[in-house]
Amino acid sequence: MQELSIRGWIWLTETAARIRRKLRSDERGLTTTEWALLVAGVAALAIVVVSVVRNLTSETANKISTDVNVGTDREGFLTDG
Questions:
Q1: DSSP state of 64
Q2: Structural domain boundaries of the chain?
Q3: How far apart are CA 16 and CA 11, in angstroms?
Q4: What is the pLDDT of residues 4-25, one digit of tens each?
Q5: What would the pLDDT profile of 57-79 be if each residue is shown by its tens digit?
Q6: Euclidean distance between CA atoms 14 and 8, whole angstroms
Q7: Is 60 helix (H, G, I), strand (E, B) or coil?
Q8: Nearest to 58 by CA among 50, 69, 47, 48
Q9: Between vectors from CA 68 to CA 67 and to CA 72, what angle results, nearest 5°?
């Protein structure tokens, strides 16, 4: 029974070593990693652009005067301007 266990263990370790060698020489995943980094960079750049535009529009919006004379008196409206 132990002999089967040892043979199974040897087969398993040899198979794992063969798979490891095959995966280490495989470079197909390299382009996937490059694309992932590129997409992450573009997403980060988009976040920065949105933040800058939002801050600039908030500053401009705060400068707009909101003092509006809404009285119904027509003479007062025209003279209080």
A1: S
A2: 31-59
A3: 9
A4: 678 888 888 899 899 888 878 7
A5: 887 777 777 666 665 655 655 55
A6: 10
A7: helix
A8: 50
A9: 145
